[in-house]
Amino acid sequence: MQVSVVQLNGLPGSSILRPKLQKGSILISGPKPRVLVVDDDAVVADTLVMALNISGFDATAAYSGARALELARESSFDNVVTDVMMEPMNGIQAALAISQLHPECQVLLISGNERTAQLLQDAIDAGHEFSILAKPVHPSAILDHLRARRPTGASLDPGAVAD
């Protein structure tokens, strides 16, 4: 997938990623996969939400693990993409709580902190399995990961191609 950077109002640091569909690209039909993006850095969360929404997902941002859990209680999500190192509830704790509410929800952890390894091992020891990507992670890597894990109900529609 090609991606272009779009600057918003010419402001520094206000660029977003916009995918470029090539002729013949296959589009996903059916309901948009719902993604909850959790990061205590609002710029990171909001940028990823914009990139996901532009790319055909229905993404929502939460700026803490506690807020993510509140949103998960109100609605279900197909995927959760969460930073690990947050306080007071870290991303793994939030992912475990959301997984109890919605066992079908897929979790992708993102972290640039070496302390993540022990937190992840604790979750594995408790019988949970999550995917993890190391920061810095390009939004296209997250998009690729989410597209590979389409929820049931969304399907590839060979008749829907980009012009």
Structural description of this entry:
- This protein has 163 residues and is of the alpha/beta class.
- The chain has one domain: 3-Layer(aba) Sandwich (Rossmann fold), CATH 3.40.50.2300.
- It has helices at 42-54, 65-74, 91-101, 116-125, 139-148; strands spanning 2-7, 15-20, 26-29, 34-38, 58-62, 79-83, 106-111, 131-134, 155-161.
- Strands 5-4-6-7-8 form a five-stranded parallel sheet, with helices on both faces. A two-stranded antiparallel sheet has the order 1-2.
- Strand 6 (79-83), helix 3 (91-101) and strand 7 (106-111) form a beta-alpha-beta unit.
- Helix 2 (65-74) runs parallel beside helix 3.
- The radius of gyration is 16 Å and the shape is globular.
In terms of DSSP E residues, the strand content is 25-35%
Number of helices: 5
- Note the run of SSEs as H and E: EEEEHEHEHEHEHE
CATH superfamily: Response regulator
Total E-strand runs: 9
CATH class: Alpha Beta
Q: What helical percentage do the residues reach?
A: 25-40%
- Choose one word for the global shape: globular
CATH topological fold name = Rossmann fold
- The CATH architecture can be named as 3-Layer(aba) Sandwich
Averaging pLDDT over every residue, what do you get?
77
Quaternary structure:
single chain
